[in-house]
Amino acid sequence: MSNLLDKAWSEVLRPMFKRPNRFQVAALCYRGKGDEKEVLLITSRGTGRWILPKGWPIDGMNAPEAAAQEAWEEAGVKDGKPANEPLGEYTYDKEMDTGGVVQCSAKVFPIKVKRLEQDFPEAAERTLKWVPAEKAAEMVQEEDLQALLRAF
Higher pLDDT residue, 5 or 113? Predict the structure, then answer.
């Protein structure tokens, strides 16, 4: 009987009460080609873990444009051209300023970096690091993002 109740909860009732994931855009900033390709990781402001630049959609911008804006604000990426289509998507738990946690889905847009500025809005709050995609996959925590980086 316990298995039946567990199954009913996990497959029927729980999905009815679960809120949909919040939508974000992320920038997979890269430079180089082939074996020389590297991706740009930044540290999060709260925990200091390695992440991609990402954020909420921005009014008046489509998703690739918003991803490019986040790359500028969080990593100083200038003159980068985002792809029109996402490379993929990953989910993660985001700690909100109010103390709660929400599950987010971030669409990842590759951006070929032409130039990095040293002076950008969040320069004092972030550390940046260029690494090969395989190394980046080892540095981030989210399994879906690890898979995207390895496929990149």
Answer: 113
Cα–Cα distance measured from residue 21 to residue 60, given in angstroms and rounded to the nearest whole number: 22
Q: How far apart are CA 14 and CA 8, in angstroms?
A: 8
Q: How far apart are CA 87 and CA 61, in angstroms?
A: 19
- Contact criterion met (CB below 8 Å) for 91 and 104: yes
Chain length of the chain: 152
**What confidence category does residue 12 fall into, taking pLDDT thresholds of 50, 70 and 90?**
low
Domains of the chain: 20-151 (3.90.79.10)
Q: Distance between CA atoms of 57 and 64, rounded to whole angstroms?
A: 10
Q: How far is residue 55's CA from residue 108's CA, in Å, rounded to a whole number?
A: 11
pTM, 2 dp: 0.83
Q: 15-26: per-residue pLDDT in tens?
A: 555 556 789 999
Long-range contacts of 144-150 (CB under 8 A, 24+ apart): 144/88, 144/89, 144/90, 144/91, 145/52, 145/90, 145/92, 145/108, 147/88, 148/28, 148/87, 148/88, 148/90, 148/108, 149/28, 149/39
- Look-up of token digits 């100083």: 76
Amino acid identity of residue 73, one-letter, is: E
Nearest residue to 71 (alpha-carbon basis) of 146, 138, 126, 22: 126
